Amino acid sequence: MAKQPMLKFVQIERDMPEKRAADARRTDFHEIYAEFANEKAKEQASRCSQCGVPYCQSHCPLHNNIPDWLRLTATGRLEEAYEVSQATNTFPEICGRICPQDRLCEGNCVIEQSGHGTVTIGAVEKYITDTAWENGWVKPIDPAHERTESVGIIGAGPGGLAAADMLRQAGVQVTIYDRYDRAGGLLTYGIPGFKLEKDVVMRRNELLAAGGVNFVMDCNVGEDISFEEIRAKHEAVIIATGVYKSRDLEMPGSGARGIVRALDFLTASNRKSFGDAVEEYDNGTLSAEGKRVVVIGGGDTAMDCVRTAIREGAASVKCLYRRDRANMPGSQREVQNAEEEGVVFEWLCAPKGFTDEGGRVAGVLVQKMRLGPPDVTGRQAPEVIEGADYVEGADLVIQALGFEPEDLPSLWGVDGLDVTRWGTVKAEFTTGATVLDGVYAVGDIVRGASLVVWAIRDGRDCAQAILERFAAPEAVAAE
User: Transmembrane helix: present as a keyword of the record (predicted)?
Assistant: First the structure.
């Protein structure tokens, strides 16, 4: 009888790839986790219980066939594991690095519920795809036949790139328009290298270009080209701009120099990692070096900011969040990594205003909070503790309070593009179709600020809807 290759979670404990020591990793922007070795990947994959109802798969926005590629990894069939992985996910090596697995697939692992520790799904996913790249299994798109239809995509973030990949595989002509000089959106300029090294994103961009995707960079829609011009060039248009408008604090002293937006801070840091000249970084405006840094916010962007500030050589880094640790929206894994690297979290603290010296920020007026009754979302609402205010000294304050959509109808001069009361584009669930014929929208510009994996899902669903639209006249003719 053949030896059972799976269900080894009873004999083998959960193990993660080795994490670099905090003192070493806090001095650079390299990824903090090492790769699994082949035998370790097999071992950890073999812990999967191959359960009849795979909650890991159902709680993955892409519904990745996780049990299948874990079994293939455990039995040494890595090329097949990669093929299964990429069949549902355009960027498995990216999701393996940045998805909050603790809230998605791993957080719903059946063996985790039984007390045995979840399968390390994300680390195995990363290992599979990195191995595929190393062995040349990842090939440029080579459609069986070219089609005449063309699609214009506005935005080169994960949603737009995912849609471009699927459309090119079907032979559709694809052109992506983006305001930045490099494709990738927040993957390139928003997420720090210690979570996602930039060569990982660049090689995927290069692969798409090699597969026939046409990139038009440094292109501002509404300025360099109009939305109507793009519509005239293509049979369909996908809006995949993401949400980049930062939420700012409006309170006493908020106009002081040294109070900056999270995305500006992260973009400057990422540009420096590419070797770009960044004036605001070089003159100290967007650099944390030697400064007392206070980050306001509790999401994943705040975690990116505090850990970036540490690496830039900040004198101290503190994070203010108005709720407690248990109610923090950011990844608990990221909080732990940040604490290891020297970040101090001030829970149940909210800004009330800012002090300044000569127009430059000198401190944050902090009011202490306590958790009161639940709000409309079910979370306990923070309440101010009167008389407990204090001043937290600061030379650089980073606002990481989330993002809102830009006013696209006004910005682009588009009539008839419906938006919600939050400013997001109204689009059909699953297809992404808007009220404008042939115009679709995907990702954060529809959902609001969300996860990369959801943008990929939206891009793929939208591409499928467009392909069905293109096939419809042929189907009618055949009848």
Answer: no
Banded pLDDT at 11 (limits 50, 70, 90): confident
What one-character-per-residue DSSP string does 412-445 give? HT-SS--B-TTSPBP--TTT-B-SSTTEEE-THH
Phi/psi of residue 391, nearest 5 degrees? -110, 125
**Pairing mode of beta strands 390-393, 360-374:** antiparallel
pLDDT tens-digit series, residues 157-191: 999 999 999 999 999 999 999 999 999 999 999 99
Identify the structural domains of the chain with CATH numbers, from first to last.
Answer: 22-134 (1.10.1060.10), 150-243+407-478 (3.50.50.60), 251-403 (3.50.50.60)
**What distance in Å separates the CA atoms of residue 127 and residue 119, rounded to the nearest whole number?**
14
Helix 158-169 / helix 198-210 crossing angle, nearest 10 deg: 30
CA distance 235 to 376: 43
Q: Looking at residue 101, what DSSP letter applies?
A: T
What pLDDT, on the 0 to 100 scale, is given for residue 103? 86
CA distance 16 to 381: 35
- Rg of the chain's alpha carbons, rounded to an integer? 23
Q: Is 384 helix (H, G, I), strand (E, B) or coil?
A: strand
pTM: 0.93
